[in-house]
Input
Amino acid sequence: MFRNLLVPIDGSPDAERALAEAADLAGLANGAMTVMTVIPDSSTWVLGGGHGAFIAPQSVRDLDQQVEHEYERMLASAVDALPQDLSVTKLVAHGRPATAIVAQATAGSHDLVVMGSRGRGEVKALLLGSVSHDVLQTSPAPVLVVHAGPHETSA
Output
């Protein structure tokens, strides 16, 4: 039975579904969850990979602060929506998402990673590679990849 789950989220429908599935698994096993988000390097945002709406920044530092605030708010909102009886730890990491997820899976001795299958647009995924694919290939823990249902995908 999996009792120490790692759930990386990015605000996508697939990540939301993965979080719900992980909450169910943790509840059944009386387990704990670490819900993490990974803030990509600002170069990713400059290339147009932003998540959410941002005011045009005055500098890269301003952009980094806006992005960090948005990710922290998304993480807090997701964790606040979980059942109160679950043991949940929030974690914000920086850098390349797949690398940060695998590093946390290792450092936290997680016995299962539960993540969404898609978190980015198709064109960007082709350019940058798939986070879920990279995690599947390199994680020391088993990885459960979750797809959003047809009514949960965004157009």
